């Protein structure tokens, strides 16, 4: 059931209205589920009409001179009406206000909020998935009376530029609508073992648990530091370490965290200003890399960085050297249909400069000394861990690309950042040189890990420290198209 829209809401009033509609709909859906589990009474058609997401509409009718902004987001590509459904507006309040305020202040846009036609699937209002039903009701039975997730209603057409413009219908306001966001929020909790609300806007992605171990040590040190800005460390399984925890209690919580139960465990270090850091062990391979970033993207993070290991492809490289990716030879094949390999993935200047400066600060090396340890160039990302066994087929391609390193995830993560408009970067550490007889042996690997992982992690964290000061330019126009949605 649609309500009469209120014209010309302020951004704050619009978000308040979004929160009220969403909370009312979720509460009504929870109450109906509880009643059905207890008494078998299904919702009426009128009740079911209340299980719907709120819709946000923004209208721009330009008058006089058009406003100009160098900002890559929160601006209009054309006059008209833009709309999207919204979920969890209370959590996304800061993000929503950041997008709406410039649209009203600079462009004179009008805002409306109403109940949409898009139903909220019942699993999305439960935190544990079965909290109302207690195993007493079959899923097939619920599907007859309650909204269920429909894959036909979930897609990335807007992000992939596949949406159809129809006269008289609103243009997309955001990359993801409410049902797409809710779909991913549930997946994030499943894969990472942490509540999606704990994931921070600065994200490190790695393929080795040793980086996670170093991140946890860093987090515990920060929490114990007098005057530090970090407030808590959130662990897989839901437990949390705070400043109030004694050292032995904090270590006990970390050791007890059941990270092995989750495919891609995440640890989040929260800051008092909201600019905390999350690290996710995505495992190995491009499929995992695409999977997790498909879902992380709905949170609209400020940046994700890949920090992991690679094979060095040049004789001059030394194990422990760094590779800063300026380009990607995409042999991962996972995104070829969505983002064809001939589409260039640009390096983002802000991220590249920050990574290089962070490396200089952490290593203490600059100029020629830093150049000896930090190589820039093309990274080849493959879908076959044993690509060396077909080197005769790959040799010419590596030569043509001038590739300096090989891994399995970086190209996918960069392509996903480009595709889903999330700033991205890659800094890898050479762990072996497969073309030059320096393969990864157990003894040498152990010594390498002990020496290199901590420094590498600190470079990633220092990079985020530098990027926090340049958010407007970080969300680059390189990531935007000519018919881009209004929201970042």
Automatic annotation (TrEMBL):
Species the sequence originates in: Plastoroseomonas hellenica
Keyword set, alphabetical order: Glycosidase, Hydrolase
Domain of life: Bacteria
Gene behind the chain: amn
The EC number(s) this enzyme carries: 3.2.2.4
AMP nucleoside phosphorylase N-terminal domain residues: 13-169
Enzyme class: hydrolase
Catalytic activity line of the entry: AMP + H2O = D-ribose 5-phosphate + adenine
Segments passing through the bilayer: none
Function text: Catalyzes the hydrolysis of the N-glycosidic bond of AMP to form adenine and ribose 5-phosphate. Involved in regulation of AMP concentrations.
Domain Nucleoside phosphorylase: 273-436
Name recorded for this polypeptide: AMP nucleosidase
UniProt-recorded Gene Ontology molecular function terms: AMP nucleosidase activity
Family: Belongs to the AMP nucleosidase family.
Pfam families recorded: AMNp_N, PNP_UDP_1
